[in-house]
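Input (cellulose 1,4-beta-cellobiosidase (non-reducing end)):
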Amino acid sequence: MYRILKSFILLSLVNMSLSQKIGKLTPEVHPPMTFQKCSEGGSCETIQGEVVVDANWRWVHSAQGQNCYTGNTWNPTICPDDETCAENCYLDGANYESVYGVTTSEDSVRLNFVTQSQGKNIGSRLFLMSNESNYQLFHVLGQEFTFDVDVSNLDCGLNGALYLVSMDSDGGSARFPTNEAGAKYGTGYCDAQCPRDLKFISGSANVDGWIPSTNNPNTGYGNLGSCCAEMDLWEANNMATAVTPHPCDTSSQSVCKSDSCGGAASSNRYGGICDPDGCDYNPYRMGNTSFFGPNKMIDTNSVITVVTQFITDDGSSDGKLTSIKRLYVQDGNVISQSVSTIDGVEGNEVNEEFCTNQKKVFGDEDSFTKHGGLAKMGEALKDGMVLVLSLWDDYQANMLWLDSSYPTTSSPTDPGVARGSCPTTSGVPSKVEQNYPNAYVVYSNIKVGPIDSTYKK
Ligand SMILES: *[C@@H]1O[C@H](CO)[C@@H](O)[C@H](O)[C@H]1NC(C)=O
Ligand SMILES: *[C@@H]1O[C@H](CO)[C@@H](O)[C@H](O)[C@H]1NC(C)=O
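Output:
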């Protein structure tokens, strides 16, 4: 699948959903972006990397240049079934700035929310690469991961997410030879929701059983899903934030089928091999409503340095993960994560005790422990994970699980229901796209290294 036409000049369409010709060849040129590796004592080495946009955002077409997929439906002639479709379809290069609203500058990347070219593009999902054909693998067990973020232009309903997933570093092209495009074209995505909206998974198309979304003109769900462990370092807008590990029984990318995928698209959310909920630390949800937001202790009007530390039992990079700690740096001040004020849930770290107590007190299903908890998350981190930088709005739950009261049927005063001060009527994607077309997020200054090596002045 995703064969790339090498010898023929393609007329590029604006994106897979709108199929309007812009009459230009589109070579795949990844925007460059640096990051740093630090060592004990705080000296850091700059590494040249680059970003690539996820294959799911791209134009997929036949050898003749016809769309394989338009809007939220497949072309039944080119794509009658998973195998034929994979053989017939080609992924094209991306115009990062004009079509996807993605720009880089030295150590930073900016993701715009709505980009109007000849079509309308909503958000993006990027992966950091070490070179043109391989994703960078980050090994952060026993280490810390630090970055700067500007969420000042992300209102209710938006989510600027920076996270790690256990994707294959080559996008899966070695394991699945029918995937000829590989990491260079952003293939191989997976996460702990075992997403079924991906057009290609494990060398196969996802046409069989495809049901177009009822409320999203660009997506649908097929029979296949793509599972892997996910460590959400950062999911945030200017009103709320969460840090959330999601382990899977098998950490590395694997394909799932239909309802056994679990997650939001399946009849049983908890029926898959991954933990779709995770164990989240959201300061607001943990009782401190004055900690994060505009003009609050962590002021979302200005750039925030976010430090996430992965502490092991023996302090090594191959020990057992026992705690995830969060620090923020703003105006030169190092600020610890706020401490839980919820009865029966203590502290400000994500550790086994916190997670077990939180699930109990909030009355949430403990799928986190069921899928191996922090120890299992640590194994995934040890093996190395791919960095994802994204900006999205939420066609399933209006992002209320992050920034409002959720579920909306529960009383906002019940423990765990209030997660942020956004109204329960906010976050409707059509409104968000209409009201905040100029929203954007900037991620910069990414650093990894031993504990306390990346943020001290
Ligand atoms: C690209 O990066 C991968 C992994 O980081 C490495 O194994 C490979 O040798 C690199 N390829 C080139 C051409 O530098
Ligand atoms: C919220 O967190 C800040 C910083 O840790 C602290 O100073 C403040 O007292 C906390 N507020 C509440 C209500 O716990």
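The helical segments are 82-88, 352-362, 367-370, 373-383, 400-403, 429-435.
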